[in-house]
Amino acid sequence: MRENLVALMRAGETLFPGIIGFERTVLPQIENAILARHNFILLGLRGQAKTRLLRLLSRFLDEALPVVAGSEINDDPFAPVSRYARRLVEERGPETPIEWLPREQRYVEKLATPDVNVADLIGDVDPMKVMSRKLSLSDEDAIHFGLVPRANRGIFAINELPDLSARIQVALLNILEERDIQIRGFPVRLPLDIVLVFTANPEDYTNRGSIITPLKDRIEAQILTHYPQSLEDSVRITDQEAWIDRGAGRAIVVPDYIRQSLERVAFEARASDYIDQQSGVSARMTIALLETLYSNVERRMFRAGEERAVARISDLFSSASAITGKVELVFKGEQEGVSNVAQALIGSAVRTTFNHVFIPNFRPGSRQKPEREIFAETVAWFEEGRHVDIYDDMAESEYAGALARIPGLKKTTSEYMKPPREQLPAAMGFVLEGLVQHFMIGKKVLGQMTIYRDALRDNWEEMTD
Fold first, then answer.
1. 236 shares a domain with 206
2. Domain boundary among 224, 249, 267
3. Looking at the structure, do residues 33 and 112 belong to the same domain, yes or no?
């Protein structure tokens, strides 16, 4: 692995294709571990690409490797380890049959669960071999090798290491320190050429188990992963992973302000007091959120008989089901209800994006607010007791017509957002939602209908409920 990594580095190739946002943090530490020939553990919250990183390690193995044909533990023809391979090489010499093992088959992965036992990982006596071949229980040929020796001359990965019971973790100590295994009942020691890598979630240390101290001491490198640190990285990850190519002949346009609002939902969730931050907010949430948003737009297109559609802010709010199952709430969040928390997260994300559009030099986290005068004509229209009803499945022409009734909205949107003509109605809807989030106008949701109205009426209804 070290030699192949060095060769790829010298050639200037991308070492971990598809991994975004770790270029200056996580990846250099993994490269250091490989160069130092260290075993390592990736420690991070859910949805931080830990398993994907481990699976990419196989590209640093040789493209193919010769092994003794029929060997269960990938014996080297020039240095056989198992009794079967030693005997075959001794009998056949240069004519020993070999097989070529591709790199993909030399990466072995196991998800740690409480029911995993030593026999699964290391091996044990195989009673079927004993009976069928009439072997003695002390015969080395009676051994059934576990996953670790079967990964010899390759990489063995254990996901969620703390889920392994302490007794099973003890069985890994000798492999990490001495690079060999001892199987119960046999005096044999099999030296293995293997890289051991692990993943763990910090939450697991307290909730489901822990890594025993001697094992942590033998894992040479502990590497911390993290969520995307910039909005741009988050967008790239979601675009890469989400299924948004919904077939030829139909075009769905997602404006930048909606796309950015969608990604900001995750950032808002990771800073929310309603969400258990020890559990984390997976990158899978924004992937599911984008896919659900596309589906909501598709549903409207199909019902309206349209072949082209622009995503609206209502599509983002209608996609809250992608959030509710992916966040763990603290007690305060449970009292609010997961649906209300999801809607509030989307609203906060929309408000931040709105501020970036309408507040010059906006600084996230500051208390800056947009100037009310910009929207005075629009707000005054609602304060006169008027309202506008928006349905989720409104055809594009109906949607544009409903918003066109609101004075000043089109002018303000065009001046500050400068959307293409076909995206103007969606941009106007975004501005309306921004006004709601800044309490300049009110909103009431009744099923699939959203009523935009005077903010004072909203406040009065809240007080009288």
1. no
2. 224
3. yes
- Which of these, 370, 366, 360, 353, lies nearest to 438 by C-alpha position? 370
Summarize the confidence of residues 37-48 as an average pLDDT.
95
Q: What does the pLDDT average to over 67-93?
A: 93
Among 104, 347, 361, 73, smallest CA distance to 191 is for 73
Residue 214 has pLDDT above 50, yes or no: yes
Residue 217: CATH number of its domain: 3.40.50.300
Q: How many domains does the chain have?
A: 2
What number is the average pLDDT over the span 205-230? 86
Q: What is the pTM of this model?
A: 0.89
First to last CA, the chain: 66
Provide the residue type at 247 as one letter: G
The three-state secondary structure class of 309 is strand
Q: Is the pLDDT confidence value at 248 over 70?
A: no
| Sequence-ordered list of residues with C-beta below 8 angstroms from that of 211, at least 6 positions apart, any chain | 41, 161, 162, 169, 200, 205
**Cα(424)–Cα(422) distance, integer angstroms:** 6
Q: Pairing state of beta strands 251-253 and 221-224? A: unpaired
Co-location of 274 and 381 in the same domain: yes
**305 alpha-carbon distance from chain centroid:** 35
Mark which of 224, 250, 273 sits at the end of a domain: 224
Residue 119 banded pLDDT, cuts 50, 70, 90: confident
pLDDT at 365: 79
Same domain? For 168 and 261 the reply is no
Range of the domain at 182: 2-224
